Amino acid sequence: MRKNENGLQWIVAETAQKKLHFPWGAWVVCAVLTVGFCLLLTAAFPSVPYPWWAMTAAAILVQAALLIVYQTRIGNWLVPAGIGVLLLLSLALNKFVLPGFGTLANDFLTLLTKKTGKIYLDLAAADAQFLPLAVTVLLLAVSLLLSRSAWSGRMLLALPILLPCYAALLLGLFPIGIGGGLLIIGTVLLMVQRTAAGEALAGAPAQLILPVLCAALCLLIGLSCQDKLDTNLVETIQTQLHQRRYDSDTNSMPEGNLKNLPAWNKSDTPALEVTMEQPEKVYLRGQVYDTYTGTGWKAADTEETAQYKDLFYWLHEANFYGQSQIALADGYTETATPLSMTVKNLSACSAHGYYPYAVYGSETLAADRIGDTDLPAAENLSYLKGSVPDWYQIQRNLSTAQGRENIETYLSKEQAYADYLRAIDLQMTQDSWAVLQRQLKLDTQARTIGDIRTIIFDYLREAMTYDETARTMNGSGDFLQYTLERSGHGYSVHYATAAVLMLRYMGVPARYVEGYYLSAEDAARYKAGETITLTEENAHAWAEYYVSGVGFVPFEVTPGYIDDEELSLGGDSPDENTYENNTQQFVEVEQPEEINEHKQDRFTFSLDAHYLLLLPLLLILLLAGYIFHRRRVFRKKMAAIDAADDREAIAMRFGYAVCLLRHSTVRPPEGAAEAAELNQKALFSTQEITPEQRKQVDSFAVRVLDACKGSWTPWERIRYRLWNCLY
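The chain above was modelled as a monomer; its predicted structure follows.
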């Protein structure tokens, strides 16, 4: 190639065949992005048959060859032709390719189940033996797009790969770690490589996507550190978002958050409007919680419950739902008539519905959910009238009628459901288990539910004092330990938590519930169909435990709420089943770090816990170093112009002005013709050049710079100063 310079432009004349070279910068970008992609692929899709390093090595070799071919005459056609060939081959060999992609799709559906707790049916067209071919097609497509994007600097070509990965990372579907960090670094390198050549990102769409992508990168860095750096902050943000979306300022229940629980701030604010065909005592379940963490109650971890996807699909297909189990069981031995109820939400938490026990039918229930703690919002409900003694009678009726085919079928489903409950609803923390071992001092003999209820009633009567003003300042310590061994005071939240954990300690599956309660005395004041307004004074927390064959029933232990019906069940052992002390099922809870008074210990930096903090710092240092280097080169060029003689300085200063104009849409300012003439004179004439002529061209360059800066947007001024270093 021969370059002719006239001060205004470069004229390139073809004199020889362009020599091929290996683009190391583009290859490094490809390598970083490919390693990150393959790490995410193997972490998120366990069916992939190859290790990440093997896929990375193969893809990098292919990309190295592609980067060489891009420099030839067929380079511009390689990506569209390659993608087209892959599509045609996939269509022609669909019987071999689609089953492999179907297996990957099933892996992704499993990820969705673990994230959302919903049931997603697997694709039937899936066969793991065809995975190698599907993975090969995927890696070839990725290699084509990433290599061409790195070669040309057009980020649009990489977006079909980067955007899905970032979306999955932000949604928590893919694990954030080294793979996500490498994708971030690779994206930054791709942007730096493009702008280092003094070129803008290709097209307006990419310029619109770039700020969003940068924001996503920053959010990814924060999310990658959230679990180990400040879980309290994350929980606080999640709580605030929930409250803003679903709660009102008057909600008085803690929604499972037991950390530093304040006094009960009950009020007469209307929460629900309820009508009943036959007004009676009723517990309206709101939020049901499975997991005790020591500082709160949470729904069961969807990662853990995902393994029960097939079970709940089978149960729901057979119309078996935990929320309606009492009514379903009653239907096999009795012909009770369901009653109607309406529940209108006025100011209560709107994240869920409010349901009575013994819901009749499954029309309002979610068939695609794993578990039965989720209560979809519903206003019109049907339920079976009854209370705990009536529901124990259902258990007796089922026992008497065993041997009938329909009851045996029902009991087989109930047994599978009960196995799930024993895996989920017996869990407790090691601290809470140790507290109850110290406090209850029970032997290892098996007990009936009647014996267990009596033990709980007797213990709470002696150990606890009902106090709505109690403040539980447990911090990061165990709530039960603080309540039973330090405070001894509390209201329904304290009593319900203690009851649930004592039930679990003695081997009974139990859950913590928050909702609203209407006593029999208050219900007697209303006529059939009359609107009953429940206020925040009716807000309540209680325990529920599982009755074999029947379902969950409420267990009231809070003073002032216990009635004769509850106490009458204490000693007659209505359930003949026996339960043994729980000694195995514990939830692993991260313990708060001990405060060390030594300064050197307080500032110890744990790499395994905080290594991801180095990622944003490294990126900042790399970008700062790059910008510093570019600015230094620019200053040297400007200093070279200042140090040059008049003739050479005019040509160089005019060339700088032309470069500025090429990055702007403004017209050349006043004096452009004279400056161009002086440039020609400096380049091709032997006439003397005076200092005044040099100053004239310098002044023209200053006017050009001012005009360009006036036409640039703030973003362009930042880019041209820090990235392109034009001024």
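The chain has 27 helices and 18 strands.
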